[in-house]
Amino acid sequence: MGYISIYFVLQGIELSVKKGIMLSDAVRMAGFHFDFPCGGHGSCRKCELVIADGETKKTVLACQFRVVCSLKVWVSEYRDAQLLTAAEQGENHWRPYCRGIRIDVPGGFSNQYCSDTQEMARLAEIKAELKKGSLIFDKDAAAELELLIEQGYRNVTLVRFHDRIISACEQDQKMALAAFDIGTTSLAGYLLDSDDGHVLAVASRFNPQRSYGADVISRAVHEVETHDGELGRLVHRAVNEMIGELTAQAGLKRAQVWQIMLTGNVCMHHLFLGISPRALLHVPYHAAITDAYEGEARVYDLDASPAARIQFLPNLAGFVGADTVGCLLATNFTREEKKTLMIDIGTNGELVMGTKEKAYTCSTAAGPALEGAKISCGMCGVPGAIQHLNIEDGELKISVIGNGRSLGICGSGLIDAIAILYKEGMIEPRGRIQKKDKLKTEFSKKNAWRVRRENGKSSILLTDKVSLTQQDIREVQLAKSAIAAGIQILCRRLGWKPKDLEQILIAGAFGNYMNPESACDIGLLPEECRGRIRGIGNAAGEGAKLAMSDEEYWMQAMQIQKHVEFVELASEKDFQERFVRNLDFG
Fold first, then answer.
1. Is the peptide bond before 37 cis (omega within 30 degrees of 0)?
2. Nearest alpha-carbon partner for 356 in 381, 339, 341
3. Contact call for residues 340 and 354 (beta carbons, < 8 A)
């Protein structure tokens, strides 16, 4: 077939590829984390790239263009994204079940018939104030201990993980624990000191899987069709790179990381662990496994301590995954006395409603539009994205991330824009863009020039480069209607009305930056709950950290499955009726 050359102009990278390769595959091979929201079907048109096979430049869709001759390509990646890592923090104590126990090696044993490991385990139990007989040595840890004793070490550190000693090493070696939230859009990582739990370093980046589609379904389909495990390996590599980034920030070595806690939605969980997501693609859309996972980090090519353990929080059911469990841990939901709704709005929307007595959960396919993936000018929260809009002195004021020129609009800006346009009558309650001659408010008449109609299609111009189309508005209607219907059905299950909710907690990046007033204005959140809504940041990541802080929290995560009952919205007889009823704004 032969090889040809692709030169990425902006980065100065030259790549030799097989003739006939899809340009999107070449972009991935070059290491670019480029967006292909539709999963490579050519429908979203967001992978347009400028190419030249001589002096003439042209624009092509990377996912539809086969490279048959040497090219120059211009690729501009998103950088310095506004990725959320912070979260609302509650009080918690620090009693990690993965930590070092410093022991002085005795000159003689208390029982002459006692083995080295038995004696050292007894001393460790005393030092750590554990019940007698609660610690057992792993084989590798026993071998390490004997070698240290032979070499004359009188002070050693035994590394405990639950009820096992997984390693023995020289004393005074600092130990660290790592937590990762694997989101569909982004990854957040935290490095914690095992002695006192304070955060040593924080890192974030986009999920490299996004080049295979913005939503979990596109990625699940790719894995089921190819069975190549590439999506899992992409995240393994990303987490491994982040471990290096975190330890470098903290001035530590990778070998000083002994525990890695993970959380993420059901699809991210399955892809990371190498489990087929096939069951997520067919009715009744269930997880292949919901149990919590514990194993060795090296199995997933994570470069940490050779004995490092990896854990993944349990899933609940359907599309409600470990990330929701993390949010429930972080908010102490199972002990909540107030009537509470927690929503994690990412590329999927998970809802949990209830109190410490009883709670229900459901999942809605709402997120891609609210994160900009299905919007014509939509983009992630990166420099150039419109993040907020408001009216000041009769003028439309726009806030852009980075304070530069607007290049597109992200989810929080999208909600603001539609709320303003709806309140000013430029969008009808049913979502149609109002005709210019029907505009009535002073603002709408003054801004009538923003309403465009070209080739039979209507749109509203926000800036000279960014507009909202009729289809964009429809996508938001579908997303907000699914969430609103889900809220109503969970209320019905509990015998409540939306007005009974005492607080609404919004987790995730979209919820953190979203204006709650705008969400109420368009009917995304109940009108009766104004003033009771607050963002809680990356609660999933906070929950992952919490699960490492005490064995009690890890066990609590196991119990959440019993406390929270899953509701499959598609099976609810009134879901479709409520969904249609909630399509209107307001």
1. no
2. 339
3. yes
User: What does the mean pLDDT of the chain come to?
Assistant: 89
- The residue among 93 and 206 whose pLDDT is bigger is 206
Quick one: tokens of 151? 């070499």
pTM of the model: 0.85
Non-local (6+) Cβ contacts of 129 within 8 A are none
Would you call 578 helix, strand, or coil by DSSP? Answer: helix
The Cα–Cα gap between 570 and 582 comes to: 16
Residue found under tokens 């900009």: 372
DSSP state of 374: T
Mean pLDDT of 132-157: 90
CA distance 515 to 209: 29
Beta-sheet strands, E only, within 365-433:
385-392, 395-400, 408-409
Task: Give SS3 for 105.
Answer: coil
| Band (486; pLDDT cuts 50, 70, 90) | very high
> Cβ distance 96 to 177 under 8 Å?
yes
Q: Is the pLDDT of residue 76 over 90?
A: no
Q: For residues 285 and 51, what is the distance between their CA atoms, to the nearest angstrom?
A: 41
pLDDT higher than 80, residue 165: yes
- Mean pLDDT for the stretch of residues 155-180: 91
- Paired residues of 352 in beta bridges: 342, 361
**H or E segment and range at residue 117:** helix 116-127
460 three-state secondary structure = strand
